[in-house]
Amino acid sequence: MSSVVNHRFALQIILTTLLTGVFMTASASPNFELKAANTQWYVINDGVMGGVSSSSAQVVNGVLEFSGRVSLEHGGGFASVRSSAGTYNLSSASGLTLHVRGDGKRYGFQIGSTTVRGVLYRAEFETKAGQWLEVKLPFTDFKPTRFGQVLSGYPLERGKLEHFGFIIANKKAEAFRLELDWIRAL
Questions:
Q1: What is the pLDDT of residues 15-63, one digit of tens each?
Q2: Sign of the C-alpha dihedral, residues 140, 134, 120, 164?
Q3: What pTM, to 2 d.p., does this model score?
């Protein structure tokens, strides 16, 4: 009997050690890095509401290339790209750093959470035409939005993030091009 108890106790210690290690790794958000080449990307344009903006997202030489044309026709006005869904715990991070190269236009970076469906958290940033930049976005800069409208309430729960993406919605018809190399915890 004592042999069974000792084996159960040993198994309990092993499982506790393993699970503690898993949870510590999952919450080690300062080490978070999402390489553009290591995820799937999906385009979501204003066609979902009748618009005719067009864009594409492809990974070339390890870099996400998000480009296209925003149109204001038929009530449109945005193009966006989103990463595939995952589970990201960034509760100990203060924000995100993006390594991007743009075209001199303003973009929004969006985060989706598993806690509130239909709400995206957005922070905006400027690019410099043809220059790689490290854009730092503190989580305090992110505003909850739904269909582009800023909401009140809905705090961002950094421990339950699901996807990341970009949007261009500058209220004008324009061609655009944005490249992403990686996203890291700040």
A1: 333 333 333 333 345 689 999 999 999 999 999 889 999 999 999 999 9
A2: negative
A3: 0.82
**What is the rounded CA–CA span in Å between residue 2 and residue 5?**
5
User: Domain 32-185 belongs to what topology?
Assistant: Jelly Rolls (2.60.120)
pLDDT digits (tens, 9 = 90+) for 158-182: 999 999 999 999 999 999 999 999 9
Q: Which of 11-15, 62-66, 85-89 has the highest mean pLDDT?
A: 62-66
DSSP of the chain: -HHHHHHHHHHHHHHHHHHHHHHHHHT-GGG-EEEGGGS-EEEEEGGGGT---EEEEEEETTEEEEEEEE--GGG---EEEEEPP--B--TT--EEEEEEEB-S-EEEEEEEESSSTT-EEEEEEE--BT-EEEEEEEGGG-EEEETTEE-SS----TTSEEEEEEEE--SS-EEEEEEEEEEEE-
What are the residues whose beta carbons fall under 8 Å from the beta carbon of 142, sequence distance 6 or more? Answer: 111, 121, 122, 123, 156
